[in-house]
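=== RUN LOG ===
request id: a7f3
mode: sequence -> structure
chains: 1
length: 139
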Amino acid sequence: DGPDRLPLPEAATRLVDSLRTGRDIGVRARIDLAVPVDDATASTVLSVLTETILNAASHAPGKPIAVELDSDASDLRLTVANPTSPSDAGRREGTGYGLIGAAERAGLLGGTFDTRRIGNGDWTATLRLPLRPMPTETS
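=== RESULT ===
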């Protein structure tokens, strides 16, 4: 946090690259943010991004993970998805505390976080946060 914090697009890119190379996780990312975000939003996004990538890699090892981080005038959206097969279905079981924490963090900022299987069986996690006005500096 603070004035030395990297802008969220750069921080998210570095995080994805670190997980890709340091943990050998197959991640493809598209990061396209239209506006800067405050520290609380950036911190939440980075935390949820880490949790969801590690969760996907743990529950469907070797499967590709797709990350999309974008925004419009009012909302920021993070989606993490990866394909699963019927044999992976049971591997989604776990404590879920990391995902519960992600939902709690989203709620504290007025946003939402949910996970689900979509029609083709892929697993997705989606974080939505309202964009909040950036604080202005006073001299």
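=== NOTES ===
The mean pLDDT is 85.
The longest helix spans residues 39-59.
=== END ===
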